[in-house]
Structure formats: structure tokens, C-alpha cells
């Protein structure tokens, strides 16, 4: 079997197993439960088809796995190099969440320093250093720059996040920059061009909201559940 066929079979098996265990999540559905519910409710043709759902899961694997791992690994690496940052975020989770239960998604809005760490990781180590290519089908002018027709364009997201004219001490990993001062308002969802890890405009990454929640959640669980230090 080709790789694509094997991947489709894997997704089909996963969907079947997930459906069999649906009763265990009664009253607390996960994302896939909600998507399948949309398919069932849309038998009139308006809902998602099974092929739509398989395509969605495929996109999650292909577009979400590497990028998520990159952000979390870099954030952990930077905190291990800066133990004071690690201690501060652990103190925040201990204070807000406690140690009697695991951090939940609903806790994230109450953990501003954890959010700042994720923003700083995205600034210094964007998972896609160059944006997905865009294409200018016709000649145009952008901020005084002439762009010839039939030109492929890539935005250097990595360079934007390290621009010394925008960021103070851009090579330092400093989540504090997002806690106070003029950069505290910066949002990575495409509204502020100083920080566009997901791109911006009509073709912004469609998984930006889920990506931010996943990264903050996984990182929060890692710092809450374990003590970390470099060997030696």
C-alpha cells in the first residue's frame, strides 16, 4: 500500500475506535465528538461528510504535529537555560491551579505568564520561519514596493521576530516583555504585524486558535507535573 492509503486506513481505524468509546465521554465530549455530531446532524447534506472529517484529521497530523513539537521543545529549552523563568511559571501554576489536580484548558486565561512564555517562544523560534508561499498573479504595489506579476512571495517571520527596531534585546528570551509595556498588547493571531507566527489576513493559518490552546496547555502540564533541570 502507498503511504497515503496507509494513512487513510489508520484514520479510519482511529475513527472507529473513537466511536466505540464515545460512551466513556458522555457529558464531556472532545473535539472529534463534536465534529462527528455535526456530521450526524447534517444528514441533509449541510454537515461534514466522512471524507471531510478524515481530511480534517489528516490536516491535524500533517500541519499540527511538527509545529506543536517545535514550539514546545524550544520553550522548554529556553526555560531550562533560564531557571528563573521556569520557577516563576511553576509558581504561577501552583498558585492558580494547585497540585491536587492537573491543569485544564479552562485555567489558561488565568495564567498570564504561561501565555507570555508561549508568545516569546513564537517570537524567537517561530515553527514556520518562512511563511507558506503566496503568489502575486498580477503586478502590484505594497507600501511602495513594486511586485512583478507571477511572483512567489514568502514572509520572513523569523526576521520580523528578531528585528531590533521592533523588539528590545531581540536575542534574549524574555517573557516579561509581554507582561507590561507597549508589547503587552501584542497578539499573535494576525492582528499585530510585529508577531505573525500564523501569518495574517485571509490566508492566515486556520488552526491558529487551536494551536495556541494546545501549546499553552501542553507546556502548562509539563511545568506543573514535573521539575526540570539540565544534567550536571
Give a description of the structure.
The protein has 232 residues and is mainly alpha-helical. The protein has a domain at 70-225: Cytochrome p450 (Orthogonal Bundle). It contains seven helices and four strands; from the N terminus they run αααααββββαα. The strands form two sheets. It has a two-stranded antiparallel ribbon. Strands 2-3 form a two-stranded antiparallel sheet. It is flat, with a radius of gyration of 21 Å. The mean pLDDT is 90.
Question: Main beta sheet: strand number and arrangement?
Answer: 2 strands, antiparallel
Secondary structure tally: strands: 4
Distance between the termini: 47 Å
Low-confidence segments, given as residue ranges, are: none
Number of helices: 7
Features:
Cytochrome p450; 232 residues; mainly alpha; flat; two-stranded antiparallel sheet
List the helices and strands and how they pair.
Elements: H1 3-20, H2 31-41, H3 50-81, H4 83-96, H5 112-124, E1 134-136, E2 140-142, E3 145-147, E4 151-153, H6 157-161, H7 208-225
Antiparallel strand pairs: 1-4, 2-3
Helix pairs in contact: 3-5, 3-7
Outline of this structure?
With 232 residues, this protein is mainly α. The chain contains 7 helices and 4 strands; from the N terminus they run αααααββββαα.
Amino acid at each position: 500500500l502507498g503511504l497515503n492509503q496507509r494513512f487513510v486506513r489508520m484514520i479510519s481505524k482511529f475513527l472507529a475506535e473513537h466511536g466505540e468509546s464515545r460512551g466513556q465521554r458522555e457529558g464531556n465530549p472532545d473535539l472529534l465528538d463534536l465534529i462527528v455530531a455535526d456530521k450526524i446532524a447534517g444528514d441533509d447534506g449541510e454537515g461534514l461528510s466522512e471524507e471531510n472529517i478524515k481530511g480534517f484529521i489528516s490536516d491535524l497530523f500533517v500541519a499540527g504535529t511538527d509545529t506543536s513539537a517545535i514550539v514546545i521543545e524550544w520553550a522548554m529549552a529556553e526555560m531550562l537555560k533560564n531557571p528563573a523563568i521556569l520557577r516563576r511559571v511553576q509558581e504561577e501554576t501552583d498558585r492558580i491551579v494547585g497540585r491536587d489536580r492537573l491543569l485544564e484548558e479552562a485555567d489558561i486565561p488565568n495564567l498570564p505568564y504561561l501565555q507570555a512564555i508561549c508568545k516569546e517562544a513564537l517570537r524567537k523560534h517561530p515553527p514556520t520561519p518562512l511563511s507558506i508561499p503566496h503568489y502575486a498573479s498580477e503586478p502590484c504595489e505594497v507600501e511602495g514596493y513594486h511586485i512583478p506579476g507571477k511572483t512567489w512571495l514568502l514572509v520572513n517571520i523569523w526576521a520580523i521576530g528578531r528585528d531590533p527596531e521592533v523588539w528590545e534585546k531581540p536575542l534574549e528570551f524574555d517573557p516579561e516583555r509581554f507582561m507590561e509595556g507597549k508589547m503587552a498588547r501584542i497578539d499573535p493571531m494576525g492582528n499585530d504585524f510585529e508577531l505573525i507566527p500564523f501569518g495574517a489576513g485571509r490566508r492566515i493559518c486556520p488552526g491558529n486558535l487551536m494551536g495556541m490552546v494546545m501549546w499553552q496547555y501542553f507546556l502548562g502540564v509539563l511545568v506543573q507535573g514535573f521539575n526540570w533541570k539540565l544534567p550536571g
